[in-house]
């Protein structure tokens, strides 16, 4: 069991973009880098050393060897996919701290695109979120410094700083004629991973904002609280994973295990190395460090059968997609909302010398029924037809150099190579298509989205109605029988 947990600890989610503004990476591992397995490409290395020498001799200003080599490593990793990266000593330290749910920054998850910092998603209850930063925004200036020409790491370091210090972000937004200026104040970001409340008697609501070390345990406390408030007669539960960028893998397994039968397959991974091939199940060895304190086993028995709806959107990624996919495949919960982000790749932290490391994509995630999450996401059973701005939302498939879906795209390439027309995949049974909108329909939408979990949250209202309607249908069917 100890070996399994050590292997399990290697796996992380980059919370969507692989690099967050606060450098709040998703997990940490203790694995020494493996030795070289393949012969080195002599001609390419000769070209590298020649370029290195030319820069040292002919560049307009002197450049330190360390800077050149570090930038070469950065380029080698960022050229692979949006989530692989080199972690210098500061970034590696922040990674180890970041999983605790408290870190410094503005609260933005970001990636790099065309030389600018692109916002993947603002984190709830943070300075960036409250200021109105949106997914897809391109940050072009930090105070008076142009972002163009900076590496992502350099841009992040400029955005970080002591709490209560100001910084001004200049943003280009699609549909806006001029750049938008956001004066922000840095803060210590404290994320409450699990929020819960009773919507109405017998109907509970649980929102997970991010998957952290304590998410599973905090979820168990929330479930216990809701069951006690309902007098032990829960009629329905809504699990809200909208805009949840992911986090720790064991958190995703723990959340899934709370609702699924023990030993149910939650997710499996597939990659080139044996370490990258894993089957993760709803059992303590896959979500607990200390198996003596199994909070899932102490949950009310009714949590395994209470009618459920899981809410997702284009901001649901990584761990969120694993949970939604597992609950959907096992027919434990109806999934409602819009297509998820599609972050279905595994990143492993490989420590190097001098307290540095690389974050390397090593595998893809697959749902229990064998569907690859990568660059596709989870398709809801019931589509949210009034989702605002979901069509324009940035997703994994929109990122430069994103990893392919795997099975589906490999099959497509094979059929194209053989000259066989691609087989069209039939819509998932029960999936309701998104209705096309005219301008009048669009104008009727809210100018700004309602707060998740509020009385104005139309998707939550729809979810509760769905649970009630289906309960009524089941009751009618019993009477008729």
Automatic annotation (TrEMBL):
Residues 398-455 are annotated as: Disordered. It is an enzyme of class 3 (hydrolase). The keyword Hydrolase applies. Residues 424-433 have a biased composition (Low complexity). It holds the Pfam family PDZ_2. GO terms for biological process: proteolysis; signal transduction. Keywords: Hydrolase, Protease, Serine protease. InterPro entries: ClpP/crotonase-like_dom_sf, CtpA/B_N, PDZ, PDZ_sf, Peptidase_S41A, Tail-specific_protease. Its EC number is 3.4.21.102. SUPFAM superfamilies: ClpP/crotonase (SSF52096), PDZ domain-like (SSF50156). Residues 398-421, 434-449 have a biased composition (Basic and acidic residues). Belongs to the peptidase S41A family. NCBIfam families: prc (TIGR00225). This is Carboxyl-terminal protease.
């Amino acid at each position: 069991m100890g070996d399994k947990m050590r292997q399990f600890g290697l796996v992380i989610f980059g919370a969507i973009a692989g690099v967050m503004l606060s450098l709040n990476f998703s997990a940490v591992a203790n694995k020494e880098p493996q030795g070289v397995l393949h012969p080195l490409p002599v001609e390419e290395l000769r070209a590298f050393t020649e370029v290195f020498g030319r820069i040292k001799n002919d560049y307009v200003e002197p450049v330190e060897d360390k800077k050149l080599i570090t930038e070469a490593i950065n380029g080698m990793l960022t050229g692979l996919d949006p989530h692989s990266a080199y972690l210098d000593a500061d970034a590696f330290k922040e990674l180890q701290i970041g999983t605790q749910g408290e870190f410094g920054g503005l609260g933005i998850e970001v990636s790099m695109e065309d030389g600018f910092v692109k916002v993947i998603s603002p984190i709830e209850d943070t300075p960036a979120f409250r200021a109105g930063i949106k997914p897809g925004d391109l940050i072009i200036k930090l105070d008076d410094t142009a972002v163009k020409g900076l590496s992502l790491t350099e841009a992040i370091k400029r955005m970080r700083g002591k709490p209560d210090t100001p910084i001004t972000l200049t943003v280009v937004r699609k549909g806006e004629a001029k750049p938008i200026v956001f004066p922000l104040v840095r803060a210590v970001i404290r994320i409450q991973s699990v929020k819960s409340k009773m919507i109405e008697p017998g109907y509970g609501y649980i929102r997970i904002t991010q998957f952290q070390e304590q998410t599973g345990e905090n979820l168990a406390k929330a479930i216990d609280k809701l069951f006690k408030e309902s007098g032990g007669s829960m009629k329905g539960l809504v699990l809200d994973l909208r805009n949840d960028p992911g986090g720790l893998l064991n958190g995703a397994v723990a959340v899934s295990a709370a609702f699924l039968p023990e030993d149910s397959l939650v997710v499996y991974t597939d990659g080139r190395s044996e370490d990258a091939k894993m089957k993760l199940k709803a059992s303590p060895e896959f979500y607990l460090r200390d198996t003596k304190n199994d909070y899932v086993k102490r949950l009310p028995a009714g949590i395994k059968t209470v009618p459920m709806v899981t809410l997702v959107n284009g901001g649901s990624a990584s761990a969120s997609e694993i949970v939604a996919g597992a609950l959907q495949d096992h027919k434990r919960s109806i999934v409602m909302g819009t297509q998820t982000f599609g972050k279905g790749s595994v990143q492993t932290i490989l420590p190097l010398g001098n307290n540095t490391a690389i974050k390397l994509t090593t595998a893809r995630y697959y749902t229990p029924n064998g569907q690859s999450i990568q660059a596709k996401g989870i398709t809801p059973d019931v589509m949210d037809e009034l989702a605002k701005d979901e069509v324009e939302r940035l997703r994994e498939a929109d990122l430069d150099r994103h990893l392919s879906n795997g099975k589906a795209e490999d099959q497509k390439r094979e059929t194209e190579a053989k000259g066989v027309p691609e087989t069209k995949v039939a819509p998932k049974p029960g999936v309701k298509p998104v209705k096309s909108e005219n301008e009048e329909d669009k104008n009727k939408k809210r100018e700004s989205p309602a707060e998740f979990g509020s009385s104005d949250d139309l998707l939550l209202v729809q979810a509760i109605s769905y649970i009630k309607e289906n309960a009524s249908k089941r009751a009618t069917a019993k009477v008729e029988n």
